[in-house]
Design a protein that fits this description.
The protein is an alpha+beta fold. Helix content is about 25%, strand content about 35%. It contains 14 helices and 30 strands. α12 (about 505-520) runs antiparallel to α14.
Length: about 600
Amino acid sequence: MTKTIRNFSIVAHIDHGKSTLADRLIQKAGLVNERDFRDQMLDDLDIERERGITVKSNTVTLPYQDADGTEYHLNLIDTPGHVDFTYEVSRALAACEGILLLVDAAQGVQAQTLAHLYSAMEHDLEIIPVINKIDLPSADIESAREQIESDLGLSADDAVLCSAKTGEGVDAIFAAVVERIPAPKVDEKRPLRALVFDARYDSFRGTIVSVRVMEGILRAKESIQLMSNQAVYNIEELGHHCLVRQPAKHLAAGDVGYLIGNIKRISDVSIGDTITLAENPATEPLAGFKLVKPVVFSSLYPISSDDYPSLVEALEKYVLNDASLIYEKDSSAALGQGFRCGYLGLLHLEIVQERLEREFDQAIIMTMPSVQYHFRLKSGETVVVDNPQYYPDPMQIEASEEPYIRANIMIPERYMGVVMELCRQRRGENSDFHYPAPGRIEVKFDLPLAEVIFDFYDKLKSVTQGYGSFDYDMAGYRESDLVKLDILVNGEPVDALATMVHKERARTRGVQICDRLKKEIPRQMFKIAIQAAIGRTVISRSTINAFRKDVTAKCYGGDISRKRKLLEKQKKGKKRMKMVGQVEIPQSAFVSILKTDDN
């Protein structure tokens, strides 16, 4: 009966209590006893619990009985909270009829709160505002109500007050979900169409696909077809998510559940794809599907070249759990064999690095992140470059373009000056201001993605003392003056340190890298020059002085020419040594380049 089904999601800015509220709902529904309960039940990864973020979405079916004794099935579809996973969020919302929009009573409406609201409006969902953390001493409920009305345009009278930590107001949330979120509008007689909104890999069962049945009925033992690639699979098992999998005979239109077929790799399934029956397929897929493309690129290398085979094995296992990571073989004269990887964003890059180190025990080095640049050549050809090694011949370049984002920054008004300065330093343009509430300001800037992927978010948090929030959308490519910055150590270019930068920023970046390397590379018996160059033009230089033996120590008194003779002899020896000497760059030097505290 679809009348007793409610499909909803909880969305919020980072650290507004989404996972904690999900825990309280699960406990109240009686799905877990006190002995088996742990915090953040829907977060499987250690990194999710430590950082307080949701990386991999989860689903759970909550049984609920109202005052009249009617049994309801409430399908909570959890969503990732970070801007890197915007597409996954949109597909999860497409599987819902309504959302709980969480607002922190102490912090109020933030940038991602607005972003999620707009996503929900695009999908025409019922929005229930929830003011969380009302138990905090710093909670300002009236201010939160005002912001819900002024910033979000929602009625504050409809807001539900709760404390996810103490459990206060959870009953009211259950009642609001049942009363205000509509039941699914479905047609079971039409050919099957089911939306894939998540997939995870199980080492025993293969890929487990989470689906929302939009039309028709999905039955066990049937043959299904994925409409994006026309692949056909047989369903071995299907059912509902109730923390543990509960098998069922069928999933009707409106239901949310899982299916297990003979799908061996998670990359065989695309998020947002449409499932239909192989024998009686639907004529067209559900709207909104797209292939997710990486926007940030970096190379991975093992610290020891002997560990390369184990890194290959680790990446093969890792992509079974994360199909959005794209990698191909790469090599560097300085670091040896490795892989060039594509990520959804900088958080995704950090997660991949941490999971490879923790779960697969890999000691790795990552090169500087870069983005995809477009170069239009004089021959009329356009080339896409994400690796400095493939930078085209400057004489052949007609024009170059780099990706831009439209950044949406929410800050208290007193921080406006420092945030404006930060955005200007990162080549921000087309600024726009909006005052959603007294004392708060929403700043919009067009920024180059390359300027954001390093440490923009950390810098923003620093200059606003933690009160700034940041969200962005891709804004296409714009023409830009790009150059390749080479780093030379003792006259030899180090390919792993090369980077593509805007011409205006090249000198600053070159000085920074040279200074960092000077601190990290050990002194030798000869002088070492560290240079940053564009083509043949050196734009920055640092020198590591040689160890010096005092060859004149045995000369006491006598003619000065004796001392000069010894110094000249030493000078010739050092010159000869410099010509044949090899400078080994320590692994810490590559790591230090990625840290941009003084950028």
